[in-house]
Amino acid sequence: MNHQGTFSQNNHQETTNYYTGPRWLVEERDACGVGFLAYKDGRKTHKLIEQTLTALGCMEHRGGCTADRESGDGAGVMTALPHELFAEWFQAEGITQPAPETYGVGMVFLPQAEAECAAAKALVEDVLTRRQFKILGWRDVPVAPETLGIQARENQPQMKQVFVVSEQGLTGDELDKALYIARSEIGKHLTDVFYVCTLSCRTIVYKGMVQSEVLGKFYKDLTNPLYKSEFAVYHRRFSTNTMPKWPLAHPMRLLGHNGEINTLIGNINWMKARENILEIPGWNKDDIEALHPIVNTDNSDSFNLDSAMELLVRAGRSPMEAAMILVPEAYQNQPSLKAHPEITDFYDYYAGMQEPWDGPALLVFSDGKTVGATLDRNGLRPARYCITKDGYILVSSEAGVVDVLDEDIVEKGRLGPGQMVAVDFQTQELLKNWEIKQRVAESQPYGTWLRENRQVLESQDFVGDRQQGETDLLRLQTAFGYTAEDVEMIINAMAEMGKEPTFCMGDDIPLAVLSDKPRLLYDYFKQRFAQVTNPPIDPLRESLVMSLNMYLGERGNLLDCGTEDAKVLKLNSPVLNEAELQRVRDSQLGATTLATTYAIANGPDGLRGALEKLCAAAEAAVRAGNKIIILSDRADGTVDQDHSFIPPLLAVGAV
């Protein structure tokens, strides 16, 4: 390996030159490698595919390798459909090749066992037929299994392509939407060896559990001169939160992702909460139900982000707009946005509807009509770009992956935090950051919707007088589980100095689940961070990229936005004082307060009964039209010798 120095291959023996460093440090692998190549004018060439494979090969140091030293975590490319390549198959089958964007191609992984393969193919054909598609035939994808490592070969599926046309005469966007619905229905039955990589009239993905150099050798199509495209997205995977599998190699259906989604559990939970109330203009109920489940905890963070993004795109958004909604930039304190209030309004509007899928992340995406890349708000992943005189653009997580003559380059640089670049093949435009975002933001009057509907809770002064006597305060602190250490070393320190308390180098107390001492419910829940990312951030040190804003009220329909969806109450912080809480109660949205205390006399079953009663009351309150529910241990008296409280975490979780 030649990575800023050379290394001996002797058994664990470190050697150094003027680039010194221990082998484990200097050879440390980084996050996935990703990028795209494209011609602005839409010309299709095989040379671009060759350059893509070269660029992908340069990303090997960014990928993971399995124990056999040959199988990779995954590598792949997404391109436009290679119509000239498929012409050979159509001719051999005696079928007249349909015009571009009038037929779809599915890249399908099938089980090796013939019986299972036949059953999987029958399932695909059944769904497509019921969805009013005519199946033109199946093409065997030419592959070279001998190039695979042991683990990849043992798990290798059969690769076949299914060709279809719409019996309803659908083309373009409508055809891709219908294919998306059919693929989603097939998706309910997928396994590790039965998987639909893509099913589209515009794009196709060739990927696998291989190293970068192997992809072009394994898939013989990629080295066929007839394989031509105006763009290609490439990706080399370093898996961090799932084991390597053939289906989990990138690109996914729309994107290749370099990084981690640190907010994944929350993102998945909120998307699941939307599933049962999804409404898409022009879609019938059967089509929408075919999409479920949109997200899946068994899949990787990239897989789930791709699923969420594809939902928005197939419902009518451009990939650029979908990326802005799902992975917004830090817009509140950014000086550059002072000249673009319409973009700030766009982000502010969607902040009340869609929680961010927070990186670090570099996304490279394409729907076949456009190809682009964007960074998340922190910009902690490299994204370098190069533009030439003849409209050739290269974006990559590495510089120099494709040889370009210096005299041909008209611009090069790197994307900053939250920035985006894209190529529109329909208009033959290269779109820069502000141009993209202005077009998206000006498509709807987001500022007007906010001014007419958004309520903002202004900060109120704290009560200056002491609210509890010393005896009552001590009693309540004891009842709610505060220890002397909590008060003296944490609360007092925070109140007096306005800083987080720091008083030890570690925590040697056993995990709550392993402890034989009584512990608070909170102790059983620990925050989880991604494996190879950054330390936790806070809104004081990182105010440029983080806020504590929260939104109360009904979440609007993400797929059919309008002025009514801006009717939420914006909080500057989740921590409210008494005056601010009263303002929430008085909100025009409608709020109700429910008690979280219960009688101790009911014994151990009292907590279960109290939870069931609380949930029933919350449901009744929502059905009565309330948009905000306040859970309070002061709503019905207070905690005393006869009454205990439902732990707030449990109460909120249950409701």
What's this model, at a glance?
The protein has 655 residues and is α+β, with helices and mostly antiparallel strands. It has 19 helices and 23 strands. The N terminus is likely disordered.
Oligomer: single chain
Number of helices: 19
Strand order of the largest sheet: 7-2-8-1-13-12-14
Basic shape: elongated
Nearest-angstrom radius of gyration? 28 Å
Structural class: alpha+beta
Distance N to C terminus: 55 Å
Average pLDDT, all residues: 89
Roughly what fraction of the amino acids lie in strands? 15-25%
Contiguous low-pLDDT stretches (5 residues minimum) are 1-19, 21-29, 529-534
| Main beta sheet strand tally, sense and closure | 7 strands, antiparallel
Number of strands: 23
Q: Approximately how much helix is present in the residues?
A: 25-40%
Please write out the topology.
Layout lengths: L22 H4 L6 E7 L6 H12 L17 E6 L2 H11 L9 E8 L3 H17 L2 E8 L9 H5 L3 E9 L5 H15 L8 E6 L2 E6 L3 H7 L12 E6 L18 E5 L4 H12 L9 H6 L10 H14 L4 H8 L14 H11 L9 E6 L3 E6 L8 E5 L3 E5 L12 E6 L5 E5 L4 E3 L1 H9 L4 H8 L1 E2 L13 H10 L4 H14 L52 E3 L16 E3 L6 H8 L5 E5 L1 E3 L5 H19 L4 E5 L10 E3 L2 H7 L1
Parallel strand pairs: 17-19, 20-22
Antiparallel strand pairs: 1-8, 1-13, 2-7, 2-8, 3-5, 3-6, 4-5, 9-10, 10-11, 11-15, 12-13, 12-14, 15-16, 18-19, 21-23
Helix pairs in contact: 2-7, 4-6, 10-11, 12-13, 12-14
